[in-house]
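Researcher: I'd like a structural prediction for the single chain below. Treat it as a standalone chain; there are no partners to consider.
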Amino acid sequence: MLYDLIDKWAGTPGERAFLAGVLALVAGQLAGMYWLCDTQVQQAEAREVQRHLDRLAIADCLGAQPQATFRSCLEQVSAAHDPEAAHVITAEAALPAPGRHPSSTISTLVPVTLGYR
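Model: Treating it as a single chain, here is the predicted structure.
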C-alpha cells in the first residue's frame, strides 16, 4: 500500500527529490528522537544509582554514629559529593528556625528515606 503511494509520487524528478527530502527529514527526526530518549534514560539511570548510593551512605552514617541525626548525616554525604552543596546546607542550618520547639528535635532523630526530584 505504501509502495503504491510512493510509485504515484515518484513520477517526475522534482517529485523524487521532494520524496527523498521528506524521507531524509523523517529519518533525521527519528534519529534525533532516539538520541534524546537514550540520553534521558542514561541520565535517569545515573540519578537512580546516585540516589541509591546516597541512601546507603546516610544509612551507614546513621548506623555507625548512634547520636547522629539525619541532618548531620545528610551534611556529611553532601560534603563528600559536592562541597558547594555542603556550604548551602550548613548555611541553611545556621539560620534560626522560627517557632522551633525543643520537643521537635525528636523528628531529626528518626531516620527517613531520602529522595531527589
